[in-house]
Amino acid sequence: MTDTAELWRKFCADLQAAGEHVLSADLATTELERLEGLRYLTRLTRIGLDMHLENADPAFPSFYQASHATTKIGADNPDNFYQNATISGAYSYRIWGKRGSVPILSFATKANRYAIDGSMASTGEIDIRDVDVADDGNFEIIVSRDQPNRNWLPLEADSSILIVRQTFFDRQVETPAQVFIEALGQSGSPSPLTPEHIEAALTRVPAFVSGTSGIFRQWAELFRTENKNALNTADQSMFVKAGGDPMIHYLHGWWELADGEALQIITPIPECEGWNFQINNVWMESLDYRHHNIHTNNGLASLNDDGTVTVTVSAKPQDTNWIDTAGHSKGTMLWRWTGAKSHPIPKAKIIKA
Question: I need a labelling partner for 132 at 20 to 30 A (CA). Which of 42, 46, 55, 351 fits?
Answer without folding.
Answer: 55
